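Below is how a single chain appears once it has passed through the pipeline. First comes the sequence as given, then the structure the pipeline wrote out for it. We keep one example in the README because the format questions we get most often are answered faster by looking than by reading.
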Amino acid sequence: MNLQRPNSNDVTQTSNRSRDVAPTSGICTRCIDGCRGNCEIFKATFRSREVIYPGPFGEITAGGDKDYPVDYSHLNIQGYAMGAKGLPKGVKGDPDTAIFPAVDTETEYGWTKKVKMRIPAFTGALGSTEIARKNWEHFAIGAAISGVTLVCGENVCGIDPKLELDSKGKIKKAPDMDRRIETYKKFHEGYGEILVQMNVEDTRLGVAEYVRKKHDLETIELKWGQGAKCIGGEIKVKTLERALELKKRGYIVTPDPTAKSVQAAYKHGAIKEFERHSRLGFVTEEDFHKEIKRLRDLGFKRITLKTGAYPMRELAMAIRFSSEAKIDLLTIDGAPGGTGMSPWRMMEEWGIPTFYLQSMAYQICEKLAKKGKRIPDIAIAGGFSTEDHIFKVLAMGAPYVKAVCMGRALMIPGMVGKNIGFWIEGKDLPQTVSRFGKTPKEIFVCYDELAEKYGKDMKDIPLGAVGIYSFSQKLKVGLQQLMAGSRNFKLDTISRKDVMCLTEEATKVSGIPYIMDAYREEAEEVINS
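Resulting structure:
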């Protein structure tokens, strides 16, 4: 099995010359002196550290493509010929009532004060990357009208060119954060919420205090990490002036924009961009509970936590600490993840893949539950994009997992919808779109549905948001069909018995029955009755 081949990938804009490549090194089996490129070694020879990152920055999202030995494709969903769980009280299951449109896809999370969502999926953290900033209206309004939670990610305030700090270095004015929150709230209808994420720099700048006081946000998210990388977040900036500004604000900026050699290289045109990095966080049980108390004292009604693809030790810490601190939602993000800009080799080669991580999480939850601990509501993230992913994750993690966190899958419809708008204006629709029509009403299946609902406000809903809503409806209807086929008419009736493993290795990892053993005891009862 070839899990992943290094030294060339479309994401780093590199490729091998030779048809045959050494599997371990990724180097062409016949490397010629005089080759004109373009593998990663070739490109790194003159562009150095730039080749670490996916590109071009600000125009792409990147997802790791390592093929792990076991993943969610090794699960299949059970379908049944009888029964109907989760129908409204008093409704008898029969062919006229147990129809897939009757399936309830709503979920909720929270320790005491719950947040409802129309589907069990929400956005990954859309933070300081350029792809999130320039598409925010599409993402935020799309999430709001879809009735799902939107996570505003780390460093949004810290990179805002118009950020104003007081004499103590705390936020006085953060226009981009204001824009992001207000955009979501304008179309928020009671389903989902916007929550802001904090890392080390955000905490130092006073992001929690700012969004609580100015915007009356009820929820804040702490961040231990993510599935795409095991260091802090990073972005690129194009000018020396911007790099110096971010360094002055306390960020790690590489190469050092204050160094004379770096300034000379920038002047000569060799250095064309700088990287802004966040610091590593350090977790201790005492500090975690102290921070939770501080945030609750600020008035936050809900506190969530996102953790990354760390080993079982840190996962156990996240689940137990969250239980004891009454965390409202714990999002567990597995490798390889997807991002606007993470070191490519790190994205490929670090961390616990999502399938394994969720299996570990279930084992830990079961042990803590047997000790009498209440398990916080959990969401799983790490490479999901379809309704069957949602079903499998909920089933595999039942009864603890309440939702799936989607990163790139909920961003892409926003970008596609936005670009359809541009193509319509420029009369340059690709055939993949124009075969359905030439106007938004012809192209978007859900356009008239939204127009009827929002009336004159429809003019304020960008086509990227229409795209996200359309995609969310695809997820909803697809999930309804899968749930009806497995005779689950509410999410909380889905169980681990509703999935089976296609390989014995997947059974060993997950504890889900192997396909040849699933329902064997029940079959024997039928035979012997």
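The chain has a mean pLDDT of 95.

See the next section for the split statistics.
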